Hints:
By secondary structure, this protein is mostly helical. The protein has helices at 3-9, 53-67, 74-101.
Amino acid sequence: MSDEVHAAHCCTRHGCKYGNATCPVTAGVVEQLSDCEHGTLSDPCIGPIQVPDMVRRAAVAAFWEGVGPGELTAGQADYGLQRAVEAVIDAWELYQEQVRED
């Protein structure tokens, strides 16, 4: 079966439509090109999540604010990651609100 067939019918989240253990979509070799057939109205499963730039920038900024200048200690890294995760959640919620308004 061709990579194009897998790209059109398989899902990175739900797996290979054909049960292929070496599916190029589930292996991350080929990008999923269409919405998943297993999606529902409450969980549309529209393919891999693409992190918006505003979310990515918020995470990086929060990490470095939490770490501070100088050598990176384990405690600073943990704190920076915690701040980054919180920033991703906040930015993702803001992004989704903006998408709904459009």
